[in-house]
Amino acid sequence: MDLKEMAARDAVKYVEDGMVVGLGSGSTANKAIQLIGQKVKEEGIEIIGIPTSTASDLLGRAVGIRIGELDDHPQVDLTIDGADEVDSSLNLVKGLGGALVREKIVAASSRVEMIVIDDSKMVDHLCQKAPLPVEIIKYSSKSTMRKLAALGCVPELRMAEDEPFISDNLNYIVHCKFERIDDPRAMETEIGMIPGVVDSGLFIGLASKVIVASSEGVRILERAERSYE
Ligand code: 5RP
After folding, report:
1. In this structure, are residues 155 and 164 in contact, taking their beta carbons and an 8 Å threshold?
2. Known catalytic residue at 103
């Protein structure tokens, strides 16, 4: 079994009958969605899935999960999602799949935000390996990118072949390459204050549990208190 599937399989054990379950985005979250679909069929449990992207909506429906709207179920019991980087305080970089805005909204609406990763995603400091994705509105993309650069990064518009990538919210995504981010909470606030920024892929104080799969097995990292509760 590959490591992503190992982490996803462990997380899906926490899905129970009657739950509202946030469906994350990306390849690891997709494994979890497939396994949740299997669990719904085999065990006959009834859950409502809240997708974090068009892709997770389509996959959820395809595997037989009943899909709902966040506004009809504003309190999510458990969300299972992936991440691009996780530090030792369980702060995250997310969004290389382009779904960070809805992922963050669903995470902040969830009693438990469970992150599933392989151990290559654990880092000493955020932005060690990955750029930071930031969703911005199209209207002011150049001026917003100049302001992002002033925070000490090299911003690059995410492309899909020859055209800018368009998010599910019809915005652009900028990949900001930082040398390192020492104070992720302060950086999240600073980026969020730039006009034209919708949100960044810094998920600070949001993850409750991180399930890390490695060749030695699965370990679970837990946070006692979250920012949103
Ligand atoms: C999508 C995300 C993903 O969770 C993140 O990119 C990890 O993806 P993968 O499991 O494919 O490595 O934030 O916006």
Report:
1. no
2. yes
Annotated catalytic residue, options 103, 113, 135, 188: 103
With 0-12 CB in 10 A as exposed, 13-18 as middle and 19+ as buried, what is 124? exposed
The tens digit of pLDDT for each residue in 5-20 reads 999 999 999 999 999 9
* 122 residue type, one letter: M
Query: Atom of ligand 1 at shortest distance to CA of 117?
Result: 10
Round to whole Å and give the CA distance between 222 and 229. Answer: 15
CA dist 192 and 71 (Å) reads 23
Question: CATH topology for 3-122+204-215?
Answer: Rossmann fold (3.40.50)
pTM: 0.97
pLDDT in tens, 147-206: 999 999 999 999 999 999 999 999 999 999 999 898 999 999 999 999 999 999 999 999
Instruction: Please give the single-letter amino acid code of residue 200.
Output: S
**What is the CB < 6 Å shell around ligand 1?**
24-29, 81-84, 94-100, 103
Q: What is the CATH architecture of 132-198?
A: 2-Layer Sandwich (3.30)
The radius of gyration computed from the CA coordinates of the chain, to the nearest angstrom, equals 17
CA 88, chain centre distance (Å): 17
Going from N- to C-terminal start, the domains of the chain cover 3-122+204-215, 132-198
d(CA 175, CA 117): 21
Q: Which residue is listed with tokens 């999510």? A: 76
Distance 94 CA to ligand 1 centre (A): 6
